[in-house]
Amino acid sequence: MPTAAKALGALTATGAGVAGWAIGIEPRLFTLRRVSAEVLEPGSWPVRILHLSDLHILPGQRRKARWVAALADLRPDLVVNTGDTLSHRDSVPAAVEAFGDLLDVPGAFVMGNNDYVAPIFKSPHYYFVGGNPRRARVPLPWRDLAAAQRERGWVDLDNAATVLTVRGQRIALAGVDDPYTKRDRYPKIAGPATADAVVRIGVLHAPQPRLLDLFAADGYDLVLAGHTHGGQVRLPFVGAVTTNCDIDRSRARGLSRWGASTWLNVSAGLGHSPYMPVRFCCRPEATLLTLTARD
């Protein structure tokens, strides 16, 4: 066989192998990311937060539901869900099954864009250049999802703030509704973060810098977000190919600094659009974030 033909054959085989991995294997390799940050007031007890995001759950995704439900065995002190839980109009029962005993843990949530409307099929290039095709969207039962979380005690932080007492310590929480669909109303929570708390946490779905700047300016110690899927496709030496919002690609997932005194954790999430079932070098994840006291 000529050298060029051999090279083409090898390249084709490699491409097929990569595609098979990215579509058929990696999207099911759920992983728990463990990180820590020194953000609590001096002398505070550690606080363990389970950060969930972007489940994009569909009816029948029992394996994903079982994996998420088993996270209750970690015994977190607080659960925070940063949205895009749904992907189908019949997804609410699957979401409740996935949350399982985690709904007995103190928790809080905000909505994401795909909690309001179902994903649609679109050309893959939209994921990398931005924009969306102009097409009617199917409304999703976000009110039922919110009610299912609220009635088990989780706090709705969509343009709202609260203080929870966890293990005898006050935790200040404030969030905004989905920025991607322009439902955020930061003025409703604006002002200095609650001083009488061991930590002040901001919550939103899409980590838009304009909102991260506001949380930081108001004195929040930590901000939790999702939406980016970690880039969903990450390349060696490049990292995330896209973030699907205005945040830079270097912060598409994981813990980083935002300004002088605020930490930001962006979850790579646990799912994807049913029309873009691809992950490469970016396993679906939940995050166990241990907060410890500053010196």
Would you give an account of this structure?
The chain has 295 residues and is α/β, with parallel strands linked by helices. It has a single domain (3-293), classed as Metallo-dependent phosphatases (Purple Acid Phosphatase, chain A, domain 2, 4-Layer Sandwich), CATH 3.60.21. It is built from 7 helices and 14 strands. The chain has helices spanning 3-25, 62-69, 92-99, 113-116, 125-129, 142-150, 209-217, and strands at residues 31-40, 47-52, 78-81, 107-109, 155-156, 160-166, 169-175, 199-203, 222-225, 234-235, 239-240, 254-258, 262-266, 285-293. Strands 1-14-2-3-4-5 form a 6-stranded mixed beta sheet, with helices on one face. A 6-stranded mixed beta sheet has the order 6-7-8-9-13-12. The chain has a two-stranded antiparallel ribbon with strand order 10-11. Helix 2 (62-69) packs parallel to helix 3. The protein is globular and about 70 Å long. The mean pLDDT is 92.
* The first-level CATH class name: Alpha Beta
The pLDDT mean sits at 92
CATH architecture: 4-Layer Sandwich
User: Treating each run of at least 4 consecutive H or I residues as one helix, how many helices?
Assistant: 7
User: Secondary-structure element sequence?
Assistant: HEEHEHEHHHEEEEHEEEEEE
What is the domain total for the residues?
A: 1
